[in-house]
Amino acid sequence: MFTKSMISRRSLLAAGAAALALPAGMSSLTRPAAAALVVDVTKGQVAPMPIALPSFIGADATTAELGANITGVVASDLQNSGLFAPLPQESYIEKITNFGQPPRFADWRTIQAQALVTGQIVAQGDGRVRAEFRLWDIFAQAQVIGLQFTTTPKNFRRMGHMIADAIYKALTGEDGYFDTRVVFISEEGPKDKRVKKLSIMDQDGFNVRMLTDGADLVLTPRFSPTSQEITYMSFAGGNPRVYLFNIETGQKEIVGVFPNMTFSPRFSPDGEQVIMSLQNGGNANIYTLDMRSKATRQLTTTAAIDTAPSYSPDGARICFESDRGGGQQIYVMNSDGSGQQRISSGEGRYSTPVWSPRGDHIAFTKFTAGAFSIGVIKPDGSGERILTSGFHNEGPTWAPNGRVLMFFRESPGENGGPQLYSVDLTGYNERLIKTPGFASDPAWSPLLKQG
Amino acid sequence: MLRRFADWKLAVALMGFLALAGCTKKNTPNLDGSAGQAAPGSVGDFQTNVGDRIYFLVDQSTLTEEGQQTLTRQAAWLQQYPNVTVQIEGHADERGTREYNIALSARRATVTREFLTAQGIEAARVTTIAYGKERPVALCDAESCWAQNRRSVTVVTGGATGG
Fold first, then answer.
1. Do B96 and A282 touch (CB under 8 A)?
2. For chain B, which has fewer Cβ within 10 Å, the N-terminal or C-terminal residue?
3. Structural domain boundaries of chain A?
4. What distance in Å separates residue A176's CA from the closest CA in chain B?
């Protein structure tokens, strides 16, 4: 669907290239900017980097409009990250008219831009379009990266997200997270008769699609890391079970053959296991089901509620919640069930632990003194931090780069309901993700595959 | 934020009174003249004269004394109408996380079922389902409502008089 390639600095007009005194070697074009132009993602509330994003140019009205739309997506992604401040286009002094020519750096310095993105859209004649762009370091007067993507015009939002990811990576040194989706539950109707639908959207709230019709109660969807599948809980037929949903075919199937209710599913990082809880009388224990052999394995054996299991990114360990000690707390164990040990130790009830894709944190929901908070803790139980707190926050999920989380927040009142929010690992930059109606149980996808 | 915490404290202070008032009213069989209006052995008879639901304390699945009384009446009624089958719905209030509440409500349904079967009701007549916090009946943000949502409800699924 997409092709991507680098743009050589040689393609710049000779005069410009000479003025820039570019090095001859062109092989390492995507390396992070030299010295100055680096955004630190690890500190909360850094001053966002001023970046100029003139609309990508096009030779005709159609490509020019597409260019403006793609630039809008890029600007919106970068702004939402909290790390960049796109400068208003009205303030730009230089009007970009020739993509092949280097910008007039002084003009961009005047408006305080530290980085500049120039681009153009080229119609290829086969119905596809090519977006070419360059990221410039204004102070170093140098190109940081140059890339091109080719796709059909209707994919313009994804094209924008990919470009934003490339810019984010070039300037922060971290992988981006804009070309991703979120699976979640759409909620409709009064609180005591909620209709819930399995739904999917882009990470920025665009392209919402309902995957089920609301006839069955559905909960807690999670992406497969390797296939176009979602695992979730459905009450279809009055028989609550863990299901698989194929996003491409729309097919649903029950996961495994269990004598009782199964719930709280999640994939292993290699996509080969589904880990979940099996209810047996008053107790819930954690099981895995191998997707190929269909073999099941019981990992916990307590007379308690063990649920919300989540693998570490290397698959070697699992975090989960258990009330075996009286109240809900977070535990960690090896993936074979050995070495179970409690890691949370503060006041209150800890639940829904989710291991970061980077491996360095576990996000959780904490209930204490009438407030529901989202927090993170290190896998060894140290470094607990609360990121947001209030009437009801629940169910964190990680962006694939482990720097941003999404969760749902219930508003109080009879007509209240849940909405999705994102927040930085630092606790800053909390943002509402607008959805058509109420939304809960978000789960972030890995970066989408290009091509 | 401050305002909300103030409300919360007030709610907690009133909790004992409200919960008592709310539950007593809901749980006691109707002893006035309207009792005779539901046909004996009907769903209405069960709901009105026996009481179809019991309540639980916060994060608990232990049967209260009042709950045991209601379940004792349910067992007697089910003995009287041996063709009736029931499904016990377990529920939790909204002040918990989704996955845990599913398991907690399953625990409540299980405890309820075990009480009935211990009273001699055939296990095959009693199924359970766990709804977690998905089906609240009282919608306010106060203990008076949450107390009504922490419940197990015995739903007649077949064999009752009057279809």
1. no
2. C
3. 3-172, 181-444
4. 30
With the CA atoms of A40, A364, A393 and B54 taken in that order, what torsion angle do they form, in degrees rounded to the nearest 10? Answer: 180
pTM: 0.89
- Residue A445 phi/psi, 5-degree rounding, is -85, 165
- Is domain A181-444 in CATH 2.120.10.30, yes or no? yes
Residues of A in contact with B98 (CB under 8 A): 219-220, 352, 394-395, 441
| pLDDT band per the 50, 70, 90 thresholds, residue B36 | low
The predicted model gives A304-325 an average pLDDT of 98
Of all residues in chain A, what percent are helix, strand and coil, respectively (each to 5)?
A: 15, 40, 45
pLDDT > 90? residue A31: no
Mean pLDDT of chain B: 84
Segments in chain B forming alpha helices (H): 2-27, 43-45, 65-80, 98-118, 143-149
pLDDT at B17 over 60: no
Residue A248 CB: number of other CB atoms within 10 A? 8
Residues of chain B in contact with residue A238, where contact means CB-CB under 8 angstroms, are 129
Range name among A18-32, A227-241, B117-131 with the lowest pLDDT average: A18-32
B5 → chain A, closest CA residue: A370
Could you report the predicted ipTM of this complex, rounded to two decimals? Answer: 0.90
The per-residue pLDDT of chain A, averaged, comes to 91
Q: CA angle, corner A60, sides to A55 and A61, nearest 5? A: 70
Distance from CA of B27 to the nearest CA of A (A): 20
Under an 8 Å CB criterion, which residues of A touch B?
190-192, 194, 196, 217, 219-220, 233, 235, 238, 240, 261, 263-264, 277, 279, 281-284, 305, 307-308, 321, 323, 327-328, 349, 351-352, 365, 367, 370, 390-392, 394-395, 410, 412-414, 416, 441
Size of interface A-B (CB pairs under 8 A): 95
As its CATH architecture, domain A3-172 has 3-Layer(aba) Sandwich (3.40)
